[in-house]
Amino acid sequence: MPAETFTWVPDYGGTRETQPRVLQSQFGDGYAQRMADGLNSQLQRMSWTFARRTDTEARQIEQFLVRHGGVSWFWFTPPGAAQPLKAIARRWSLSPVTWNGCTVTADFEQVADPGV
After folding, report:
1. Which residues pair with 93 in a beta bridge?
2. Is the dihedral of CA 77, 79, 83, 88 positive or negative?
3. In the predicted model, what is the mean pLDDT of residues 4-15?
4. Coil/strand/helix, residue 83
5. Predicted local confidence at residue 2, as pLDDT
6. What is the pLDDT of residue 70?
7. Cα separation, 2 vs 116, whole angstroms
8. At a CB cut-off of 8 Å and minimum separation 6, what does 95 contact?
9. What percent of the chain has pLDDT over 90?
10. What is the pLDDT of residue 106?
11. DSSP state string for 35-59
12. How far, in Å, CA of 116 to CA of 103, rounded?
């Protein structure tokens, strides 16, 4: 089954964070040697907001995330990015803010799963 694409565009002002995984060996006199931990050691974590969406759109976003359940990856193009990346969402929330209006927040993680 081909991967789905997350088509909703988040609001600007989200965050993208990268914390490279590094292996380090500490030696005497303060000397240390470091190297990247694996081939995909610089994967991104992102937090996005989808503010003041209609109830229908907010529920569609939520259903998409529930369907993938933090396990199955999907294509996602962050604002300002040239190409989509493989991502999962392990955490999200939906908050009613007005009549027929909700805000969805979601934390995405880039994954390096093989295959297309």
Report:
1. 105
2. negative
3. 91
4. coil
5. 66
6. 93
7. 7
8. 102, 103, 104, 105
9. 58
10. 97
11. EESSS----EEEEEEEEEEEHHHHH
12. 31
